[in-house]
């Protein structure tokens, strides 16, 4: 049906008088006798119906209602020439699903139809019909393509047995020390164009030596678990711990070797060595912060547990700002036995404890505030777990406990510092006296 008809003629054609039972649309005999109409007439005579049980006339009725609803809305909102339609009641007209749902309204001048179905049909017409469908399908295909590309990039990274080292300082120091096997490097476009001296140094060190790949920042976010990678990552081999024997004879030889190494470096006899032992410190951020403080303040060696302790992971290297790549970290299977052997070789074992634990004084061991302690012999400082502190069999080996005095009256439940912060304060007190 032509859409150039005026709204008033459309209204007259689709209204149904109350006193009349006539169908509101022309019968097939009144339609033009073209080829389509003739074919439809033959179908009607043979009783043809589609899968929904509609004959050809019912289908034509739906098509007419679609055209009428579209034309009525254009008439209400105004046509292309700016003329406003007069019959605003047509705005509620919508096409039926089939001729069987057409019912008379109480007023008798309009028909009750399926509004939801009509709204969907009008939306498709307003957005371009088949063209709109094609655009939506094209958008879905493009979205799936991008998702597939995102999953496929760096899908096999890291390879089995390797790890992802991230951050400017860890990557730069790892390239300098060459303690790791570096397989591949991943950088962002912004890092490649950066003017920072560190970035230029890393790119120069990797040039013609490491396979570099420029990737999107989201890929590095996925590799690092949303951690601050600063635009550069290295796929490397893990960093191994050095082994510290718990046998007294072997440990004695290692201590003697350590003293000879100090003498060769020109250290005076008054420069007493200071080691730090971490008893089951599990948090990688704390472990990295302790390594950074130990290196900065001048600790000679760091010992950790083999089991039930934080490993040398990329997170630790990042938290230590790359110090883990420089500092030799030793591991012992039995920390209490190692401490006992060191004590028998003339070392003093000092434990770190909170002020609350010092007030209890359960072991009867002397507690000394850190600012009153003086370093007089080789010393090893033992730091305990974040939750429960030093184990009982470690506390029995200690000759003294160092405490940090609070500057105010503490609220119940807050009786200590973070393990990395407390370690930094204690190390500063200890190492500040060896001059």
* Major beta sheet summary: 8 strands, parallel
Compute the gyration radius: what is it? 42 Å
Percentage of residues in helical conformation: 40-55%
What is the arithmetic mean of pLDDT?
A: 75
Distance between the termini: 103 Å
Strand order of the largest sheet: 7-10-9-8-13-11-14-12
What is the number of E strands? 14
Point out poorly predicted stretches. Answer: 1-5, 7-29, 66-113
Which structural category fits the helices and strands? Answer: alpha/beta
Helical stretch tally: 16
Question: Strand fraction band?
Answer: 5-15%
* SSE string, helices as H and strands as E: HHHEEHHEHEHHEHEEHEHEHEHEHEEHEH
* Large-scale geometry: elongated
Written overview of the protein:
The protein is α/β, with parallel strands linked by helices and 435 residues long. Helix content is 41%, strand content 13%. The protein has helices spanning 7-14, 35-45, 56-77, 115-126, 130-152, 168-177, 189-192, 197-206, 217-224, 248-264, 284-297, 314-319, 335-344, 355-360, 392-395, 419-431, and strands spanning 103-104, 111-112, 163-166, 182-187, 211-214, 232-236, 242-243, 274-278, 301-305, 329-332, 348-352, 367-369, 379-383, 400-403. Strands 7-10-9-8-13-11-14-12 form an 8-stranded parallel sheet, with helices on both faces. Strands 3-6-4-5 form a 4-stranded mixed sheet, sandwiched between helices. Helix 12 links the parallel strand 9 and strand 10 (329-332). The longest helix has 23 residues, at 130-152. The radius of gyration is 42 Å and the shape is elongated. Residues 1-5, 7-29 and 66-113 have low confidence and may be disordered.
